[in-house]
Design brief:
- The protein contains 18 helices and 17 strands.
- With 788 residues, it is of the alpha+beta class.
- β12 and β13 form a beta hairpin.
- α6 packs parallel to α8.
- 25% of the residues are buried.
- Pfam families: Kinesin (PF00225).
- This is Kinesin-like protein.
C-alpha cells in the first residue's frame, strides 16, 4: 500500500481542470441566478476539503474530475483522493544518506501541502462571503416585507379613522334629528292636550244646547196642544153664534154687529194661528216665559168661560146681549194685545234659536276639524314613534359599529407597537420614552407662557411632543410620550414586557436621563408611602417575583442576585457595603478600596469587590433599596431641594433552570437613575457641589460623545472616557434591550435644557446597537448554577 502511494505522482497544475477562480465565478453565478443548478464539482470539492481538515472522515464517492489550477491565481484544486494521497505519501529515497535529494522531495511535498491549505482557505473565504451575502439579502427582504406590512396597516388605520369620523358625523345628525323629532312630538302632545280640552268644552256646550232644544221642543208641543184647544173652542163658539143669530131674528142690526165682531174674532184667531206656527222655532227664552204664557192662557180661559156664561145669559135675556158683547169685545182686545206680545217674543225666540243653531253648526265644524287634526296627530305620533324606533335602532347599530371600530383601533395600536418593537429589535435601536412632569407651584412664576404641548394628529398621537422656544416650535417623535397627568402605573405598563425579557434570558437596561429636577428619581424610585407612587424599580421587582411564582409551575427555578452602586465624582461606591451609611463617606473614600469594571467575552459586566446579595422576595429587595437610598449622595441646589449628586445603578441578575427540559437562562436587569445635568449659572453650586456638578456634566458629556460615535457608526467609540460610559458599554454597544427615559421639565425657565435633552434623546433613538441575543443553553452536569 505504501509503495502504491509512493508511485502515485501529485497532481500538476497542467492536469487540473477547475481552479479556485472558476469555483468563485460558479458561486457568483448561482447567487445572481437562483434558478441555475449548483456546480456539482465545486460542492463536492468543498465537502472534501472540509472532510480532510476535520479529521479525514469518509465521504460519499464523488464523480467529478479533479480541479485544475487557474492561470492567474496559482492555487491548485484538490479532490479527496488527491488529499489522501498527499497525506499518505512517503519519501522515495534510494540512498537514505542522500540528504540533498531528501530535502528536495521534502520541499516539494511542503509546497504541495501549502497549495492544498491555500486552496482550502480560498474555498472557506468564498463560502463565508456567500453566507454574508445571503444573510444581507434575507435581512433586506425581511425588512421590506415588514415595511410593506406597516404601510398597509397605516392605510387601514387611516381608513378606519375616516370611517369613524363619518360614523360620528352620522351619529351627530341622527341625534339632532332625534332631538327635533322629540321637540315636535312634545309640541304635538301639547296641541293634542289643548284640543282635548277644547273638545271637552265643546261637548259640554253641545250638551247644554241639546238640553235647551229639548226644553224648547217640549214647550212647542204644549203650545201646539193649546192652539188645538183654541181651535176647538172657536168651532164651538161659531156653532153657538149661529144658534144665537137664529134666536135673535128680531134684532138684525145687533146680530149683524155680532157677526162682524165674530168675523173679526175669526181673523184674529187665524192670525194667532199663523203666529203660533211661527213660534215652533223658539228655543232659549221659552222657559223663562212659560209661567207668563200659562197665566195668560188661564186668563184667556177664564175670559172665554165668562163669555160662555154671557152667551147663556143672552139666550135667556136678549136684552143683555149688547152689554155682554161689549164685554166680549173688551176681552178680545186684551187677548189681541197679549197675542201681539207673544208674537214679538216668538220672533225673539226664533232669532235666538237661529243664532244658536249657527253657533252649534260652527261648533260641530270645529269639532270635526279637531277630530281630523287629532286623527292626523295620532298618525303623526305613530309615524314619529316608528321613526324614533328606527333612529334608536340606527343609533344602537352605530354604537356597536363605533365600539367595533374602537376595538379595531386598539388592536391595530397593539399590532403597531408589536411590529414597531420587532423592527426596533431587528434594527437594534435604543428605544426612547419621554415623560413630562407636572408644573410645580414655583414653576413659571411671573409668566403664563406654555412651552410644552402635545400634537393631536393620529400619526403622532401619544408619541409626539412640541417645545416652543423664543416663538419657534421644535417637534420631536419618540416611541412613547407620557403627559403630566399620566400615573406611575401608566408608565410601568409600557415597559412591563421589557422587564419580562430579563426572565426570558435577555440583558435589559433602562436608564433615566434629564436635567436636575425633571423627575428622574421619581420615575425610577417613586415616593415612599402610597402604593400608586411606586417607581419603575419597585414595580419591576414585584413583577419579576410574581412571574417567577407563575413559571415555577412550569418547572422553572430561579436564583436572583442584587447589587447597587453609585458613580460619584468618577468614583464607584458600593451602596450595599457592610456598615455603610451616608455619614461615613469620607472614611470609605479613604479606605483605599478600588472597584474595577470588567467585561467578559460574553458581554457580561462585573465590578470587582462589589457586594452581591441573594434575594428571594420583593420585600428583601425593598429593604436593600431603602438602605441604598440612605447611602446615596444627595445635595441641595437652587434648582432642587433633593438633587441626586451621583449616578445610581441597580442590577438584578437572574439565573433560571427548567428541570424538565434542562434549559438554562441567564438574564440581567439594569435600572439606572442618572444624575441630572445642570448649568452652574442656575444651580449656584459652590465648593463640593461645584465639584460634583463638574463631574456629572463631564460624564454626561462622555455619554453624548458615545452616542454621537454610535450614530455615525464610527470604528472607535470612546466608552473608556468615563466610568459611566464604560459601565454602560454592553447596554449601548452590545446585544442588550435598552430603553432610555428622557425626563422633561415644563418650566419656561428650563426650556433651553429641555430642548438639549430632547435633541439628545432623538440621537439616542437613532442609534443601532445590535440585535438583542437571548442567553440560553442546556444545563451540563458540571454546571455551577444550582437551584435549591
Amino acid at each position: 500500500m505504501a509503495s502504491k502511494n509512493q508511485n502515485k505522482a501529485p497532481p500538476s497544475p497542467s492536469n487540473s481542470k477547475y481552479s479556485v477562480d472558476e469555483v468563485s465565478v460558479d458561486k457568483r453565478r448561482r447567487i445572481g441566478n437562483p434558478k441555475m443548478p449548483p456546480n456539482t464539482v465545486t460542492r463536492t470539492q468543498t465537502r472534501q476539503a472540509f472532510s480532510v481538515v476535520n479529521g479525514g472522515q469518509d465521504l460519499p464517492p464523488t464523480s467529478g474530475p479533479p480541479s485544475n489550477c487557474g492561470s492567474d491565481c496559482g492555487v491548485v484544486g484538490f479532490t479527496k483522493e488527491d488529499v489522501e494521497a498527499l497525506l499518505n505519501e512517503r519519501l522515495r529515497i534510494k540512498n537514505k544518506f542522500n540528504y540533498k535529494e531528501k530535502s528536495e522531495q521534502m520541499a516539494e511535498y511542503i509546497k504541495r501541502l501549502k497549495q492544498c491549505i491555500k486552496w482550502f482557505q480560498q474555498l472557506q473565504e468564498n463560502y463565508i462571503t456567500e453566507l454574508e451575502k445571503q444573510k444581507k439579502s434575507l435581512m433586506k427582504a425581511k425588512e421590506d416585507e415588514l415595511n410593506s406590512i406597516i404601510v398597509e396597516l397605516r392605510k387601514n388605520l387611516e381608513a378606519l379613522q375616516e370611517k369613524f369620523s363619518k360614523e360620528e358625523f352620522d351619529k351627530l345628525e341622527a341625534l339632532d334629528s332625534l332631538s327635533r323629532e322629540r321637540d315636535s312630538r312634545q309640541a304635538v302632545e301639547r296641541l293634542q292636550a289643548s284640543l282635548s280640552e277644547e273638545l271637552k268644552r265643546t261637548q259640554q256646550d253641545n250638551a247644554s244646547a241639546n238640553q235647551k232644544m229639548q226644553s224648547l221642543n217640549d214647550m212647542y208641543k204644549r203650545l201646539h196642544e193649546y192652539n188645538a184647544s183654541l181651535q176647538q173652542y172657536n168651532s164651538r163658539l161659531q156653532s153657538e153664534i149661529h144658534t144665537t143669530n137664529d134666536a135673535l131674528k128680531r134684532v138684525e142690526k145687533e146680530k149683524a154687529a155680532v157677526v162682524e165682531n165674530l168675523s173679526e174674532l175669526r181673523g184674529h184667531n187665524t192670525s194667532l194661528q199663523e203666529q203660533l206656527t211661527l213660534s215652533r222655532a223658539l228655543h232659549d227664552e221659552a222657559i223663562k216665559q212659560k209661567e207668563a204664557l200659562g197665566s195668560e192662557v188661564a186668563c184667556l180661559r177664564g175670559e172665554l168661560q165668562k163669555v160662555r156664561e154671557d152667551r147663556d145669559c143672552q139666550l135667556l135675556q136678549v136684552q143683555a146681549l149688547s152689554a155682554e158683547i161689549v164685554k166680549y169685545k173688551e176681552c178680545t182686545g186684551k187677548s189681541i194685545a197679549e197675542l201681539d206680545s207673544l208674537t214679538t217674543k216668538t220672533n225673539e225666540l226664533e232669532s235666538t234659536c237661529l243664532s244658536q243653531s249657527e253657533q252649534i253648526r260652527r261648533l260641530q265644524e270645529q269639532l270635526a276639524f279637531a277630530e281630523k287634526r287629532l286623527q292626523l296627530s295620532n298618525m303623526s305620533a305613530l309615524e314619529t314613534r316608528s321613526e324614533f324606533e328606527e333612529q334608536k335602532a340606527l343609533i344602537h347599530d352605530l354604537k356597536n359599529r363605533l365600539a367595533d371600530a374602537d376595538l379595531k383601533i386598539v388592536e391595530g395600536e397593539k399590532l403597531r407597537k408589536k411590529l414597531h418593537n420587532t423592527i426596533l429589535e431587528l434594527k437594534g435601536n435604543i428605544r426612547v420614552f419621554c415623560r413630562v412632569r407636572p408644573l410645580l407651584s414655583d414653576d413659571g412664576v411671573g409668566t403664563d407662557t406654555k412651552v410644552v404641548s402635545f400634537p393631536t394628529a393620529m400619526e403622532v398621537l401619544g408619541r409626539g411632543i412640541d417645545l416652543t422656544q423664543n416663538g419657534q416650535k421644535h417637534s420631536f417623535t419618540y416611541d412613547k410620550v407620557f403627559m403630566p397627568d399620566d400615573s406611575q402605573e401608566d408608565v410601568f405598563v409600557e415597559i412591563s414586557q421589557l422587564v419580562q425579557s430579563a426572565l426570558d434570558g435577555y440583558k435589559v437596561c433602562i436608564f433615566a436621563y434629564g436635567q436636575t429636577g425633571s423627575g428622574k428619581t421619581y420615575t425610577m424610585m417613586g415616593k415612599p408611602g402610597p402604593p400608586d407612587q411606586k417607581g419603575l424599580i419597585p414595580r419591576s421587582l414585584e413583577q419579576v417575583f410574581e412571574t417567577r411564582q407563575i413559571l415555577e409551575a412550569q418547572g422553572w427555578k430561579y436564583e436572583m442576585q442584587v447589587s447597587m452602586l453609585e458613580i460619584y465624582n468618577e468614583t464607584i461606591r458600593d451602596l450595599l457595603a457592610p456598615n455603610r451609611s451616608s455619614f461615613d463617606v469620607t472614611r470609605l473614600e479613604n479606605s483605599g478600596k478600588q472597584y474595577a469594571i470588567k467585561h467578559d467575552a460574553n458581554g457580561n459586566t462585573h465590578v470587582s469587590d462589589l457586594t452581591i446579595v441573594d434575594v428571594r422576595s420583593s420585600k428583601e429587595v425593598s429593604y436593600l433599596l431603602e438602605r441604598a437610598a440612605q447611602s446615596r449622595s444627595v445635595g441641595k441646589t437652587q434648582m432642587n431641594e433633593q438633587s441626586s449628586r451621583s449616578h445610581f445603578v441597580f442590577t438584578l441578575r437572574i439565573m433560571g433552570v427548567n428541570e424538565s427540559t434542562d434549559q438554562q437562562v441567564q438574564g440581567v436587569l439594569n435600572l439606572i437613575d442618572l444624575a441630572g445635568s445642570e448649568r452652574l449659572s442656575k444651580s449656584g453650586s459652590t465648593g463640593d457641589r461645584l465639584k460634583e456638578t463638574q463631574a456629572i456634566n463631564k460624564s454626561l458629556s462622555s455619554l453624548s460623545d458615545v452616542i454621537f460615535a454610535l450614530a455615525k457608526k464610527e470604528e472607535h467609540v470612546p466608552f473608556r472616557n468615563s466610568k459611566l460610559t464604560y459601565l454602560l458599554q454592553p447596554c449601548l454597544g452590545g446585544d442588550s434591550k435598552t430603553l432610555m427615559f428622557v425626563n422633561v421639565s415644563p418650566d419656561p425657565s428650563s426650556v433651553g435644557e429641555s430642548l438639549c435633552s430632547l435633541r439628545f434623546a432623538a440621537r439616542v433613538n437613532a442609534c443601532e446597537i445590535g440585535i438583542p441575543r437571548r442567553q440560553t443553553n442546556l444545563r451540563t452536569s458540571d454546571s455551577r448554577l444550582s437551584i435549591g
